[in-house]
């Protein structure tokens, strides 16, 4: 699991990927974070059927998910839920990542 995630940016010379592959990498990353955050991290996936082969830039989602964990869930003592949504809208792919936000200090 971990080697596959860490090899992704080094071995993948393609400039494009598929949504299915990008979601797979995100799930690998989130599995690692779940070991650290335990029950403080939950994820809700809402991916419209038939979008798996949609082309998008490689490693587009994983850094966004990482930011949602680092700047959102990990900063909250009770943790939180990251919501990942993928929908088709007017011929385009719409991706959304929502996370709880800690109070400003």
Describe this structure in words.
The chain is an alpha+beta fold and 105 residues long. The model has no long low-confidence stretch (mean pLDDT 88). The strands form 2 sheets. It has a 3-stranded mixed beta sheet, covered by helices on one side. A two-stranded antiparallel ribbon has the order 1-3. Helix 2 (19-37) packs parallel to helix 3 (62-71). It has 3 helices and 5 strands; from the N terminus they run H-E-H-E-E-H-E-E.
In short:
The protein has 105 residues and is α+β, with helices and mostly antiparallel strands. It has helices at 2-11, 19-37, 62-71, and strands spanning 16-18, 41-47, 55-57, 80-89, 92-98. It has a three-stranded mixed beta sheet with strand order 2-4-5, covered by helices on one side.
Strand order of the largest sheet: 2-4-5
Principal-axes geometry comes out as elongated
Strand content: 25-35%
Radius of gyration: 14 Å
Quote the average pLDDT: 88
Could you give the topology of this structure?
Elements lengths: L1 H10 L4 E3 H19 L3 E7 L7 E3 L4 H10 L8 E10 L2 E7 L7
Parallel strand pairs: 2-4
Antiparallel strand pairs: 1-3, 4-5
Short descriptors:
alpha+beta; 37% helix; 5 strands; 105 residues; two-stranded antiparallel ribbon
């Amino acid at each position: 699991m971990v080697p596959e995630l860490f090899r992704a940016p080094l071995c993948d010379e393609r400039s494009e990927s598929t949504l299915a592959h990008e979601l797979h990498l995100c799930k690998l990353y989130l599995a690692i974070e779940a070991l650290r955050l335990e029950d403080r991290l939950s994820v809700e996936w809402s991916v419209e059927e038939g979008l798996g082969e949609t082309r998008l830039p490689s490693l587009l989602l994983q850094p966004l998910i990482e930011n949602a964990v680092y700047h959102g869930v990990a900063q909250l003592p009770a943790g939180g839920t990251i919501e990942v949504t993928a929908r088709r809208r007017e011929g385009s792919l719409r991706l959304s990542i929502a996370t709880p936000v800690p109070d400003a200090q």
